[in-house]
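User: what does the whole thing look like in 3D?
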Amino acid sequence: MIVSTGLACLILVGGFIVLVALRVPVAFALGVATIPIVLMDIRLTPFIIMDRMFQSYNSFILLAVPFFLLAANLMNSGKITQKLIDLARVLTGWMPGGLGHVNVAVSMLFAGISGSSTADAAGCGKILIPAMVKEGYDARFAIAITACSSVMGVIIPPSILMVVWGGVMQVSVGALFLAGAIPGLLIGFALMATVYGYAKVYDYPITMRPTFAEFWSAFKGAGLALLTPILVIGGIVGGIVTPTESAIIAAAYALILGAFVYRTVSFRDLAGIFYDTGRFASISLFAIGTASAFGWMLAFYNVPRLIVDFMTATELGVIGTSLVIAALFLLFGLFIDAIPTIIILGTVLLPVANAAGIHPVAFAIIGVVSLAFGLVTPPYGLCLLISAAIGGMNVITVLKDVCIILAPMLLILLLVILFPELALWLPRTLMPSSFQ
Amino acid sequence: MILRGLSLIAATLRVIIGSLMFLLAIPVAMQVIARYTGIIPVYLWTEELATFIFVWIVMLGSALAVWEGTHFDVQVIPESRRPLLRFLQQALVLTLVAVFALLFAWYGIDYAKFGGIQNSVMMRANMMITHISVPIAGALWAVFSLYRLYEAFAHYRTAGQAIS
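Assistant: Here's the predicted 3D structure for the full assembly of 600 residues, as structure tokens:
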């Protein structure tokens, strides 16, 4: 038989929701949901689905993902994270709510080097959550601020999500990296304002004002690590290296720092780091395959075109459409990992954004920022799960603080929607050639 | 016996994944070194080799994650306190994964054969070397998920006996 679009949608989307609710792993749920349709529709064969899935891994740009993860893991193992914390401490520790600011500032520094939010939550959380609790901060606040600040990892360049986005939707990764910088920094400042508010209300302690010698020593310690964003982003923006090459340069640089400069990574550690990276990268990237098959099937049944027709008919305009797009990404981000969401929802909404006249780079930033927030919202918020596990608390108990800290961050997302130039200005200025 | 065999396979997979990740760095690093230093010539096959290794990492890693139970899932409904319901939920999930895996393995054989009649563009390598990862991954998912299913059943039975 030939399956109608309505029935296909019902089986694919409905099936997927039921499967996820039953706790079928998301990557498999996406694949299992396609089985009934392949069996029913005479135009489809398992071969097509398998090929769609397999070909999605055949992308050189995606190779950047394991290397950015490798760089992050090397940084965490090589105590580079500790050096960044030392620097963040002299930079912001003297403000009311000292360690809270340190937590935010170190995530900004970490984000500029790694590109992975989960590595940020794990690496910084392990050191800062116990330190904050020891200094008298509420554990719930410590967990919530660690989780929320780690989302900057995928917004401030480099960013694994932007690499995937650029690869899947044929947008310049360099332009996306630059576009994430200002919104990312704004989110950082919004977080610091929230920490300040918390410090005033709960009377949180201030760490000592650093002496110049302390400042210089911290800066010297972290200075070499801070060269990474210049290497990575400078290389891509200057058109010197591709994103994948920049990722391996970042990983090689982190390796040199860890093994030879700081001498904190031994060759024995390396085997474990390579294995951990491969394992985690494969779990994240495996979903790309099943998500591609699922997304292809939606496209096969013309679902994106129907959504474009529907959205065009509603005449929401640029801002209205952007708000709907952000809401959809936020909603999906609650339940699914960011990478499969980019592949399914991103590709479905791309024509909608184009039809509404939203710039592809602005669309990407709205998508990535919304999905980054999904990293701290249950039931599927990886960064929150990691931070809560480190702090030894249930996710539900820290939810109130997460909501309070997220509110100003959502405000920044709204600002980016209202004023897309916040995202577009930097790439337009620095990369005019690749930025139409 | 079966557990020992499967644990051995999982341990081997861990070594392979770690080694492949290390190997993956070599062609990409060669590409960077060749392009920017000129110490070695610019080889065109490095990009292709890197994607081949990448495919294997993803496929074998996904199999290992089925064994370790580390594929991401979402807890929307709170876990039931009743052992029977908990077992049924686990059994349903593992059965669905196993069905998907068996289909993947079965149709993957044809897919691998299809790879066997193609050569890659740069290295002129027979594409079977990557396409074969599809049925292998499918078979590993199936074996691992079916063993976990058996384990869940055994656990449910012993828990039931302990209560009675």
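In plain terms: The longest helix of chain A spans residues 267-300. The radius of gyration of chain A is 22 Å.
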